[in-house]
Write a structure and sequence with these properties.
Chain C: This is Trafficking protein particle complex subunit. The complex is a heterotrimer. Chain A is of the alpha+beta class. Chain A is built from four helices and five strands; from the N terminus they run E-E-H-E-E-E-H-H-H. Chain A has a five-stranded antiparallel β-sheet, sandwiched between helices. Chain C has a four-stranded antiparallel β-sheet. Chain C is globular. The chains are: A alpha+beta, B alpha+beta, C alpha+beta.
């Protein structure tokens, strides 16, 4: 079991956060290009699923799986999107995404940010918090 | 209610060469609105008048307008009795003098054209998933799960993709189904000398084989293999 | 899976080997009349074989899910002799004559269902007719479907000897490998 990497995007597709742990293959693109591709693929997957499913209520894409990894999606009602790549058989990833989302909102809305909107979100603080959450997860080996 | 909703066979270039759709009842609902404005909010989506907001009394999101006062709607247009020129649905429903009005809504369906688009979309998603893999030697998308459906894909070494879409609640052994579809394709499409590779499959024997296979798959729901 | 393949083979309606041999013979002789040059007949047989092979490749993979993806010519030869040829020709085959840094090899068919009752006249052989080129073409077509480019030719048979298919590995067709299938 492995957790490879995590992407957090805002509503406009700006990558707010990225970190990786056991990633063994890079995409061959610059980071900026890769973020664009990941975000674009997620949007296409959503639109693909919406067109395909004719049942009536709204749907959310849970994950996709290949022979070697699984990408799990979480989208908040405000449009924040968190994507995480894990081992294809990993369990409990949805809960993990919720914890990361919580950590992100807490950091992004922290007191310092509220006083001055120009302060950049504390990247290293968020990084260490996400890392803490990820390493605690049973799938992180 | 059957579990298997769609089958697609996609060739190496991403074109759809075969599709099958389960015959689930398409929900329809008649509503009479006595006064303007209507409680549901309609907009034109993909050349249809579609419910985009205000799910109410059985009329759900993404349902489209199928007929107005029993006059069938094609696209967003329909004929009001004895008039020569068709009227636009959305404009018609904006006018208070046209009320009361009876509107038939229907659940969305997928046209063949949309299936062709979906196939090429999936083909590129499959390829991107390989590129974005965080580890070596990854295949493309083999499973895609949403709250509405499960999609399973088998890509053969020659590059043909077999895709099956089931309900989210299905427990059918999709890998067995896919490999048996591959066998049917090899037997009844490829061995037919009049079938040209990469072209749409129009073959009675293939259809018959598939029908038997699908029946067996549906009945096996929950079993590890069939 | 392989036991099932045998089962399928046993189940399938079998054609008498003699009728098959006669049908093939009738076709080749008819072609010799249509094409004046026996070399052209060899080319046509190769094309026909190629088309058969590119279709049978999928049939083979569909029914032998456990066959590994080949990474060298030794493995290709092994799969051909051990699985593919016994399955489709119903005869055993062996590999010999490795040369050119394992790029070239020969497959020897223990017996050849195409030539069981056939004696090819020497003047046609010397004019370039390769009677069993259909089999070589099928091997070429099947390998091309799994993205290996090879040259294959049936060594013209002298009577009483076993049929030899000479195969030369050319290259891996990188561009035609579908995404997610390359290593």
């Amino acid at each position: 079991m492995t957790i490879y990497n995590v992407y957090i995007f805002d509503r406009e597709g700006q990558c707010l956060f990225y970190d990786e742990w056991f990633r063994t293959k890079q995409s061959g693109l610059s980071k900026i290009q890769e973020y664009k591709l990941v975000f674009g693929m997620m949007l296409s997957m959503k639109s693909f699923s919406e067109r395909l499913a004719t049942a009536d209520s709204n749907q959310t894409v849970n994950f996709y799986k290949t022979s070697t990894y699984k990408m799990t999606f979480l989208e908040s009602a405000t449009g924040i999107k968190i994507l995480i790549n894990t081992d294809p058989n990993a369990n409990g990833i949805r809960e993990l995404l919720h914890k990361i989302y919580q950590a992100w909102t807490e950091t992004a809305n922290s007191a310092a940010r509220l006083i001055s909107s120009e302060t950049e979100p504390d990247e290293s603080f968020l990084k260490s918090r996400v890392k803490q959450i990820v390493t605690k997860h049973p799938c992180y080996v | 209610m059957t579990h298997i909703q769609h089958l697609f066979v996609i060739n190496r270039a991403g074109s759809l060469i075969y599709h099958w759709e389960g015959k689930n009842e398409v929900a329809e609902i008649d509503k009479t609105y006595t006064s303007h404005p209507m409680a549901v909010h309609l907009e034109e989506v993909d050349q249809k008048a579609v419910v985009v907001f205000g799910e109410k009394e059985g009329v759900k999101l993404r349902y489209y307008v199928k007929s107005i006062n029993n006059s069938p709607v094609s696209g967003t247009r329909f004929f009001v009795d004895n008039e020569e020129e068709p009227q636009n649905v959305l404009e018609f429903l904006q006018k208070p003098e046209n009320f009361p009005v009876t509107v038939k809504f229907a659940a969305p369906t997928i046209s063949t054209n949309e299936k062709i688009i979906l196939s090429s979309m999936f083909h590129s998603l499959f390829t991107i998933a390989v590129q974005l893999s965080p580890c070596m030697k990854s295949s493309g998308v083999e499973v895609l799960e949403t709250t509405q459906f499960k999609l399973f894909c088998l890509q053969t070494r020659t590059g043909v993709k077999f895709v099956v879409i089931t309900s989210a609640a299905s427990n059918i052994a999709a890998d067995t189904l896919l490999s048996k579809m591959y066998e049917l394709y090899a037997d009844f499409a490829l061995k037919n000398p009049f079938y040209s590779i990469d072209m749409p499959i129009r073959c009675q024997k293939f259809e018959e084989g598939l029908k038997i296979l699908l029946d067996r798959a549906e009945k096996s729901n929950g079993a590890l293999t069939f | 899976m392989s036991s099932k393949t045998k089962q399928n083979l046993a189940d399938s309606k079998k054609m008498s080997a003699e009728l098959f041999c006669l049908t093939y013979g009738a076709m080749v002789t008819e072609m010799l009349k249509d094409y004046e040059d026996p070399k052209d007949v060899t080319i046509q047989l190769d094309k026909m074989g190629f088309n058969m092979g590119s279709r049978l490749a999928d049939d083979f993979l569909a029914k032998n899910a456990n066959v590994p993806r080949c990474v060298d010519t030794r493995q290709i030869a092994d799969v051909l002799c051990r699985n593919a040829i016994p399955c489709y020709l119903g005869v055993n085959a062996t590999v010999t004559n490795w040369s050119n840094g394992d790029r070239d090899f020969s497959i020897i068919l223990e017996s050849n269902p195409l030539t069981e009752l056939v004696q090819v006249p020497p003047h046609l052989i010397s004019a370039g007719l390769s009677y069993s080129q259909l089999i070589a073409g099928a091997i070429r077509g099947a390998l091309e479907a799994v993205h290996f480019k090879v040259f294959a030719s049936a060594v013209p048979e002298s009577s009483n000897s076993n049929t030899e298919i000479r195969i030369r590995f050319d290259q891996v067709l990188k561009d035609s490998i579908p995404a997610g299938e390359d290593d």
